[in-house]
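hiii so um. not sure if this is the right channel but i have a protein structure encoded as tokens and i wanna go backwards to a sequence. like what aa goes where. can anyone help
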């Protein structure tokens, strides 16, 4: 059983209510239950959300030497945070950057990510299924 952390950043606690035309009508908790059921005994999926940059960094430090993979949606910190990029660089666990929306089809400022260069890969634009695809990438792919 692989230990996987899903780490959600700012404003993602409002999923289901927040700009539903972009982020969908489903809250994260019901989706997470579904994911846990889908992956069953293959993955132990831990979940943490914070609106605070430092709390996200603390969680990366806490899990980043023990877990098998981290699926990170850093929300808008993706486009601003050198500190999060440094934290990802500092840990050993591979991190996959995910976005619900296709950030390349939106405002120009969303096209730049400080995190992409230090992540194992990036998945965006598949709605909540971006998380599922990231877990599949962590569990099923061969080097
Ligand atoms: C997001 C995209 C970011 O640009 C935005 O700031 C978010 C959500 C996404 O999942 O599509 O908060 O990371």
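sure thing!! here u go:
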């Amino acid at each position: 059983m692989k230990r996987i952390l899903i780490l959600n950043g700012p404003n993602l606690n409002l999923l289901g209510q927040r700009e539903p035309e972009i982020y969908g009508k489903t809250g994260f908790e019901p989706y997470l239950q579904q994911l846990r059921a889908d992956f069953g005994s293959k993955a132990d999926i831990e979940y943490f959300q914070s609106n605070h940059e430092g709390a996200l960094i603390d969680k990366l430090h806490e899990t980043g030497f023990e877990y098998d993979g981290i699926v990170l949606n850093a929300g808008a910190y993706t486009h601003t945070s050198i500190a999060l990029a440094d934290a990802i660089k500092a840990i050993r666990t591979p991190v996959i950057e995910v976005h619900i929306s296709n950030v390349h089809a939106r405002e120009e400022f969303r096209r730049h990510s400080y995190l992409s260069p230090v992540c194992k890969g990036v998945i965006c634009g598949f709605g909540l299924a971006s998380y599922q695809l990231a877990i599949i990438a962590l569990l099923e792919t061969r080097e």
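oh and The first strand starts at residue 2 and ends at 8.
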